[in-house]
Amino acid sequence: KQWYQRRVAITAGGGGYLRFFHDQLKYTIRDKFLDDTFSQNTHQWFCDFFMSIIQPQLCSQPQAKTPDYYEHVLNQIVHHQLEVARVTQSFETFKLTLRNIYFVRERIQFNQHNNLNNEYLAAIEAAPLDKAAFKLWAKFVQLYTPAIKEFPQFAYNMATNQAPTSVVSQDTLLLYNM
Known about the structure:
Helices cover 67% and strands 0% of the residues. It has 178 residues and is mainly alpha-helical.
C-alpha cells in the first residue's frame, strides 16, 4: 500500500510514467548548477537572438518571411528583457519592443494583446524612471487594440496622432528617423 501511494504521488498526471514538472526541474537545476552571471548572460543571449528574428518585421511594410516560431519569439522577448533589466536597471531596450508601435502591432495581430498588457504592468513595476512612459503606452494599447487589429496598416498614424508631448507620439516619431 505504501509503495502504491508513493507511485501515485510521483506519477500524478503522468499515466504511469515518472514525470517531472518543468518548473520544478528548471528551478532545481538553476539553483544547484547555475550562477546569476550565467542566468543573466542567457537572458541577454535570448534577447539578442529574439530581436534578430523580429527586427525585420518592425517597420511600416514588413517584407521578410517569418520563421515558424515567430509567434513564440514575440511572446517571449519581453520576459527576457525584463529579466535583464531587473539586474542592469537599464530599460533602453524596451524602445525596440514595448515602446515600439510596430512591435505592438505585431503582438496585436498575433492575438497577444492580453499578454502585452501584463508585460506593461510588469515593466511599470520594474522601471522606476520609465514608469510614466510605460503607463502611457499601456493606456494607448488598451484603447487602440481593436483599431490596430482591424487596420494594422494605420498603427503608425494612430500613434503619431497622439498629443505631440505624448511619449507614444515621441517614441513613434523617432522610428521614422531611424
